[in-house]
Amino acid sequence: MTDSDTDYDVAIVGGGPAGLTAALYTTRLGLDTLIVNRGGGRAAMMQDTHNVIGVTEDTSGVEFLQTAREQVEAYGATYRRGFVSDVADVGDAFALDVDDGEDTVTVRQVVLATGFSDAKPDPPLPPTGRGLHYCLHCDAYMFVDESVYVMGHGDSAAYVAMIMLNFTDEVDLLTRGDDPTWSEDTDQMLRAHPIDVIHEEISGMTRGDDGWLESFEFEDGTVREYRGGFPMYGSDYNNDLAAALGCDLTDDGTVAVDDHGRTSVDGVYAVGDLVPGHNQIPVAMGQGAKAGIAIHMDLRPFPRSVEDIDREGPVDADEVPAISESLRETARAFREGAVESAADD
């Protein structure tokens, strides 16, 4: 369906769960789709996958994303490892500079799925996924009846510490030498919950043979045992491309979107951890699906409206199907492979 003046119908910038799901929908709905992924990201760091129905916990983030990528490519999407350094509105299309301008790709619409980076505290720290965890909703279940720490000095850290009392009676709040910045109301709440606030900085750490955290040593010489915990130091949103395009941002740096991922700039969508909401894989996948469907509705040429019929005339038989020949060939091959696989079973 690609417009003859552009290389692709859609470019997805980012290869996490949200971006790959958006690409799955746009591709299966007949749009020539490019995914540009620089690698890394929150999902890729997962040691185990939690809260994704149908995906077992022994699946790592890398395995999860690799399977998703292979699925999307099998449907006909183009996957490219690279970095989009700039996106510019060039009239009826967008131009993407890939790998610092070494290549320019033109597309009709853009999906930004660039996520964010968690602000990490200073070491010593246990490995991510083995005592250092960033998602309470994903990982609190792992710490039922375990000793848990929360790092930070603001309201979010205090609240997470209190929330963890729903799962365990052993919760410490580690300010690591910083003065508390939480509000008076939060301080009153915190004092009414059985949480130890430890102000000394961490001076050392021990890990077990399995790599998991066992304990922290503090500068006053005390040692406290922990199975794991949550650092709460905020997030750095990868919103440079959105800002350059003129998309509205919220106060915390996320990209403002409607219920289908549309930004304030026509033709630009944003999904996943880059937008407001819960930072969860199923939520990101839902956002990607809704954006993919909305883009299909934006770009599909049929049904031709009454106004367009008056201007262009009725749809000629030579104009259908609208899907590009390359996607038609891929769809036919995919269908034939599925039939053969079913026959073998």
From TrEMBL:
The keyword GTP-binding does not apply. Gene3D superfamilies: FAD/NAD(P)-binding domain. Keywords: Flavoprotein, Oxidoreductase. GO terms for molecular function: oxidoreductase activity. Residues 8-288 form the FAD/NAD(P)-binding domain. SUPFAM superfamilies: FAD/NAD(P)-binding domain (SSF51905). This is Thioredoxin reductase (NADPH). It comes from Haloplanus vescus.
